[in-house]
Amino acid sequence: MFQGLEHTAIASPDPKRLAEWYVEHLGFHVNFEYAGNYFVKAKNGTMLEIIPSEGDRGPNAMKTPGIRHLAILSDDFDAAHAHLQAKGVEFKGEPFSNQGNRLVFFVDADGNLCHLIQREKPLP
Predict the structure, then answer these.
(1) Residue 30 clears pLDDT 90, i.e. is over it
(2) At 100, which CATH number?
(3) What residue numbers bound the domain in which 83 lies?
(4) Does residue 8 contact residue 70 with C-beta atoms inside 8 Å?
(5) Domain tally, the chain
(6) Is residue 60 part of a domain?
(7) Beta-sheet pairing, 70-73 with 113-118
(8) Can you give the pTM of this predicted structure?
(9) In what order do the strands lie in the sheet with 47-52?
(10) What secondary structure letter does DSSP report for 93?
(11) What's the average model confidence in pLDDT over 96-123?
């Protein structure tokens, strides 16, 4: 019956700019757009819908309620990290290892929290 998440939506004051950021920085492509909304699709088929926002942004700390980060999977952590550094991405710390996985937190063009991850073993 239920197949899984089809996409996750992010509200942005400038959806086109944010969609272009995901294309330029993370290799996504614009899969579909309508009325100022953009679907961007990653190489593995996952999608984000970027929609026009209304009002002011609420708190965006690591453990405030709600969706906290987008995990961006990489098969070459060092190359992906270097690519993001060369693009001037704002990192929220240094890369670290956790349970054999390599991670580093960063923000997208709107300040949404993301992290780059390369897993030692895929999740079960």
Answers:
(1) yes
(2) 3.10.180.10
(3) 68-124
(4) yes
(5) 2
(6) no
(7) parallel
(8) 0.92
(9) 8-12, 47-52, 37-41, 29-34
(10) S
(11) 95
